[in-house]
Amino acid sequence: MCLGVFVTNDQRPDRTACDLVPIAWDEVAGAVRLLDQTALPGRADQRLVRSTADLVQAIAELAVRGAPSLGIAGALGVVVAVDEAAREGWDEARRDAAIDAVRGARPTAVNLAWGVDQVRPLLGQGRDAVLAAALALTEDNLAANRELSRRAADWLLERIDRPRLRAITHCNAGALATAGWGTALGVLRDLHERGRLELVYADETRPLLQGARLTAYELAALGIPHVVQVDSAASSTILRGLVDFAVVGADRIAANGDTANKVGTLGLALACDAAGIPLVVAAPWSTVDLSTADGSGIVVEQRGSQEILQWAGERTAPEGTQGFNPAFDVTPSRWVSVIATERGVVEPAHGTTPRDLA
Amino acid sequence: MCLGVFVTNDQRPDRTACDLVPIAWDEVAGAVRLLDQTALPGRADQRLVRSTADLVQAIAELAVRGAPSLGIAGALGVVVAVDEAAREGWDEARRDAAIDAVRGARPTAVNLAWGVDQVRPLLGQGRDAVLAAALALTEDNLAANRELSRRAADWLLERIDRPRLRAITHCNAGALATAGWGTALGVLRDLHERGRLELVYADETRPLLQGARLTAYELAALGIPHVVQVDSAASSTILRGLVDFAVVGADRIAANGDTANKVGTLGLALACDAAGIPLVVAAPWSTVDLSTADGSGIVVEQRGSQEILQWAGERTAPEGTQGFNPAFDVTPSRWVSVIATERGVVEPAHGTTPRDLA
């Protein structure tokens, strides 16, 4: 296993799992090991990072991305700064400036700052205490993902009477965005390990194609049979009876179960409701925002037109045409069959809500 | 107006409308005039075609496409063959071979053969009789499109109490696929001419982007305010109350009103139903197939993986990943609010069906 810590460079017992770990501590190299996601799916390049400057650059380039991954990057960045300071003979002020540079590498990524702040108070206890705390964050994320995946898989297997299930998913809520296990894809991985998964339909997920690029990569690495389809095929795939359930991650879950996730999730929810199959939201408890009563309090991020209107530098629409590019949509709780977190499972469509787990 | 016949090359009274005529007879040049759709939306190049060989090439290159357009191309192709035979001194056998070449330029496009066969029996009556018959086909298509557009617009304006309506559409059912008016886009054009259209959300329509490339081009040429969005944004655009109705074309309509159209139409239908707004299907009567009782009798064409899995020659998914690429979906009649044809309007969701117009 190379989840969390790489113990050796060359004799990794589980090559597949290693290809899905976005960020980890390499004990042999004494460095952060990153999977360079900018090269996916064409290449799965590993990158060793020994300096805070290189880490800042990797984060800015999106070589590592995803909220939980960035939290871990922030925490491990403090270790890198301590080691670099010792190696280069930096004073404390220079070391702290390097840590601040990691903390601010992507200003809007709150998890990055959160990860730094989780371990920074331990600097007085020495480098090994900081490393232990950073690794504990990684373990916590992995444990939460595995637990919520197990709970969601149990829920599904109790309700769907088929030897092996067929699923649809949207976007990428997988190992590559977390500490190395995943949420929506963690559920599929759990079912696969139990021998209970038949086939996954992965929406390509326009405009950035996280489904085609990342989800398909993860499913291939895990040996899970899958096909990629355009997003607009989801409704007919569901209503033709080709899948038994849909599973997605979440960006934010309101107290009543209304769920914000990648735009297109709402379309899956409508089709699942019409077909009478469950929509499963798989997300760590940290995604639940009890201070937001319902979806009306969630602001949907509007992104730039150019993501839609051009491809590989060429315009796909006429000059002058504007794009409308909401990054997320909000699925009302009445269409959310189940929310699986590491704390437990609730069924918003049947009246239980995240509040019941608080 | 340059619908159907171009009377002059340089003094076209309505430049906008001319940019939306995919194929017409140019009286001055004595030739077929094509809008080269392979160059859209970047350029709107007009091409004069004087030989059957050039026409066959234009059809094969998809410079002209869409079932009604190809029917007209077939009919006008017979005129081109007659003129070419006179000019080049061909005998009848050579002329007939040239007509057959046009007829078979795209073997699966039945409308091409249909267009040839409509006018070929008139060869004995002379070239002008053939031309008149070809122009009559054009006029018939235009008249049918205009009539069904008017009926759909009337239906909408009777039911939606807003000064100007906001619409969503999917794919391209416009002038460029017909004789120069359009079906779904014809409805929008009719509303626009009455000053009753506010804004159109055009789905980009993966995998081939007919929405971004062609629908946005047509709306821009007509001066209709519009935005392009990814297909998966349709559900939230509808459920957030941003539009008053959806309008689409159809590839085939069963006797009970079940409607096959570009994949993604079903998702619009589900969202319209949930939002309580109408889904309008706009299609000429020739699209209705009374010999097919319902949607279960419609075979959905599966197209190749490469349309999904690569872009501009680059793979977007890992090597080995397969694509699932249904070209159409079938929307059950209970979610089809209205079908507007030139014969009249029926409301399948409320129990009237195309059979009632037979």
How is this structure best summarized?
Two copies of one chain form a homodimer. Chain A folds into two domains: 118 residues, Four Helix Bundle (Hemerythrin (Met), subunit A) (Up-down Bundle); 209 residues, 3-Layer(aba) Sandwich (Rossmann fold).
Defining key terms:
homodimer, 358 residues, alpha/beta, Four Helix Bundle (Hemerythrin (Met), subunit A), Rossmann fold, 7-stranded mixed sheet, 18% strand
Question: Could you describe the 3D structure shown?
Answer:
Two copies of one chain form a homodimer. Chain A is globular, with a radius of gyration of 21 Å. Chain A has 358 residues and is of the alpha/beta class. Chain A has two domains: 118 residues, translation initiation factor eif-2b, domain 1 (Four Helix Bundle (Hemerythrin (Met), subunit A), Up-down Bundle), CATH 1.20.120.420; 209 residues, 3-Layer(aba) Sandwich (Rossmann fold), CATH 3.40.50. In chain A, the strands form four sheets. Chain A has a seven-stranded mixed β-sheet with strand order 7-6-5-8-11-17-18. A four-stranded mixed β-sheet of chain A has the order 1-2-3-4. Chain A has a four-stranded mixed β-sheet with strand order 12-9-10-16, with helices on one face. Chain A contains eleven helices and 18 strands. In chain A, 56% of the residues are buried. β15 of chain A pairs parallel with β7 of chain B, so a sheet runs across the interface.
